[in-house]
Design brief:
The chain has 210 residues and is of the alpha/beta class. The protein is built from 7 helices and 13 strands. The chain has one domain: Class I glutamine amidotransferase (GATase) domain (Rossmann fold, 3-Layer(aba) Sandwich). The strands form 2 sheets. Strands 3-2-4-5-1-10-11 form a 7-stranded mixed beta sheet, with helices on both faces. Strands 7-6-8-9-12-13 form a 6-stranded mixed beta sheet. A hairpin with a 2-residue loop joins β12 and β13. The longest helix has 13 residues. The protein is globular and about 45 Å long. The two termini are 24 Å apart. The mean pLDDT is 94.
Length: 210
């Protein structure tokens, strides 16, 4: 079972969750080979500047090599890249798109059997959970969506107090962990800990976690 860092969100340009990433990268060991799944956008992001920015960031955190998985890679190539890395990073974007693509290429099975560290940012974090709470930008409504189920709980990323009433309503049926941008829920073999702020919504009530 991998150790999971479920990051509520980050502005990579400002490196606003550097503390979380530093912890994860240190945990993964050396020499550190990072494998990035940038699959959460409707159109695949191959823009040089964005990849260069992410690579520069990860090198500054101690990575010796940063590889990317292309959606055009074969399942065998993806498996080889996965086995030769010790930290997997799932980027943010559209969680439904990411989940569908990971399942289509059977990456969900690779992640379950992975023994390194996995960092999920925003949509990447949500995809790893049994269920996740997403907010539609068009009408601000929230909805529960099924994830890959590497962990057996429900997560809300980019948490802001403005959504408390909706989260309290949903929590009457589902226990929900809510993590703001820059904070993370860390899951390791059944034990959960937190970096920064995190909240639990349960039975229509909210409490802060430490």
């Amino acid at each position: 079972m991998p150790k999971l860092y479920l990051l509520g969100g980050e502005n990579v340009f400002r490196r606003s969750a550097r503390e979380v990433n530093e912890r994860a990268f240190q945990e993964a060991g050396e020499p550190l080979v990072v494998l990035v799944f940038a699959w959460a956008r409707a159109s695949f992001d191959k823009e040089y500047k964005k990849r260069e920015r992410l690579v520069d960031y990860f090198i500054s955190l101690g990575a010796s090599k940063v590889n990317f998985v292309e959606y055009s890679d074969s399942k065998e190539t993806i498996a080889e890249k996965t086995s030769s890395s010790n930290l997997i990073y799932l980027t943010g974007g559209l969680v439904s798109v990411l989940i569908e693509r990971l399942k289509n290429m059977e990456v969900d099975n690779l992640l379950r059997g992975y023994s390194g560290v996995i960092v999920g940012r925003s949509a990447g974090a949500l995809a790893l959970c049994k269920k996740c709470v997403i907010t539609y930008r068009s009408n601000s409504k929230v909805k529960l969506v099924g994830g890959l189920g590497l962990v057996d709980f429900t997560l809300k990323a980019h948490y802001k107090p403005e959504k408390d009433n909706e989260l309290k309503r949903l929590s009457k049926e589902e226990k929900i962990y809510a993590v703001p941008e820059g904070s993370a829920l860390v899951y390791d073999n059944g034990a959960s800990s937190f970096i920064g702020e995190a909240y639990l919504f349960e039975n229509g009530k909210k409490r802060m976690l430490t």
